[in-house]
Amino acid sequence: MKITLIKPSLGNVISGYNINDGSMEPLQLAIIAGLVKKPDEVIMYDDRLEPIPFDEKTDLVCITVDSFNAHRAYEISAEFKKRGVKVILGGMHVSLLPDEAVQYADSIVVGDAEPIWDQLINDAKQNKLQKTYSATFGLPQDGHFPDRSIFKGKKYLPISLMQFSRGCKFNCTFCSVSKFFKHSHKCRKIDDVLHEIEKDKLKTILFVDDNMVSNKKELKILLRELIPLKIKRASQSSIDMAKDKELLKLMVDSGCAGNLVGFESININNLATHVKLETYTILTCFLIINYTKKH
Fold first, then answer.
1. Nearest-CA neighbor of 161 among 6, 28, 257, 21?
2. Is the pLDDT of residue 167 over 90?
3. Cβ(60)–Cβ(4) under 8 Å?
4. Count of C-beta atoms within a 10 Å radius of residue 204
5. Domains of the chain
6. Helices (H), strands (E): how many in the chain?
7. Distances from the Cα of 19 to the Cαs of 6, 10, 81, 153, in angstroms?
8. Which of 65-69, 131-135, 181-185 is the least confident region?
9. What is the tens place of the pLDDT at every residue in 13-23?
10. What DSSP element (H or E) covers 125?
11. Are strands 165-167 and 185-187 parallel, antiparallel or unpaired?
């Protein structure tokens, strides 16, 4: 079976401006590619960087869907379905709006793909695809590793994406992550993370975790293991990390070159601890700069 993976672009949303400049690797598709077993063949097309060969022979198309590219994903799905190719849709948008997504595909995946992938492929080979495959939120990438060979020859930014954890401990009402992961957070096996870095010879990494510091105890174990690897990395974290000086030092010592922090409102009435948050922000910047100078 030949399986085609698709990363949709945003489509033509702004005339005269290529909003897809500076694209990063679609990690989720590399993880899916890593699930494909021989003799099945897998190929990936990134709509942000290259035209999609709709007439190229393939047996199954899998499209990852975010809310910001859902319209384009549905357009791509329709083109393949016109040609009689079965289409599977998955991703955050599909899991949050399955009743919408199922109208545009032969089948959808709700939740993590890893637990249901083998069943989905076996069903596809027997022409018995179910409309919906659902999986509960489990241990991320449990024993599974991305197949980054699908990125070869594509002009991505020179940074490798990987994940240490999925979900977040907080339960913000506005956040799709809280909804998707049902206010839970789980970390990968640290040995798996280290093996992936070594296997793929990663040196500059963006951890795509929505909140890398959600489990500080596990993160500290990982950071200590990262120190001798001499990597450079960036991540996304909640501002409560600034309360933990040991964690901040470990972040710097383990190669942290940048960290994204989201402040979800500029309305002072919505941030009951806005004064503390401001203090933590200043403290975080000070400590990271201070430790960086010393190292």
1. 28
2. no
3. yes
4. 14
5. 2-134 (3.40.50.280), 158-294 (3.30.750.210)
6. 10, 12
7. 18, 8, 27, 21
8. 181-185
9. 555 555 656 79
10. helix 117-125
11. antiparallel
